[in-house]
Amino acid sequence: MIRVALPFHLRNLAKIESEVELDLAGPVTQRAILDALEARYPMLRGTIRDHVTQKRRAFVRFFACEQDLSHDSPDAPLPDAVATGAEQFVVLGAMAGG
To answer: Does the pLDDT at position 93 exceed 90?
Structure first.
C-alpha cells in the first residue's frame, strides 16, 4: 500500500479528506504512483504533470524519506520505505515570489 500526501488544493479538487492509499503492481516509481493517482482521480490530470509531456509542473515538488525527489528520473525506484507504506510520497506545491 503506497501512501500519497497531496496539498490542500489538490485534495479539495479530488474531494478527498486526507492521504491517498494506492495499490501498485510492479516497481514503485514516481511515474507508477502518478499514473495510478490520475487513474483514480481523473480531475487531477494536468495538475501535477503536463498533459502532453508528462513532465512535472514547475511549481510542484516530490518528497519522500526527507529527500527532494523532484529532479530524479520518474522511472527510478523509490525508497523501500515508500514501497512498503512506512513513509508517504509527498506531492507539494512550491512557493515562489519575492
So the answer is: no
**Sign, Cα dihedral of 9, 11, 15, 17:** negative
Split into its structural domains, the chain has a count of 1
pLDDT band of 97, cuts 50, 70, 90: low
Count of beta carbons in the 10 Å neighbourhood of residue 2: 22
pTM (whole model) above 0.90: yes
Task: Give a yes or no: residue 29 inside a domain.
Answer: yes
CATH number of the domain at 60, please: 3.10.20.30
Residue 86 belongs to what domain range? 2-93
- Quickly list DSSP for 56-84: BPTTEEEEETTEE-TTS-TTSBPPHHHHT
- Residue 98 belongs to some domain of the structure: no
Question: How far is Cα 85 from Cα 15, in angstroms, rounded to an integer?
Answer: 22
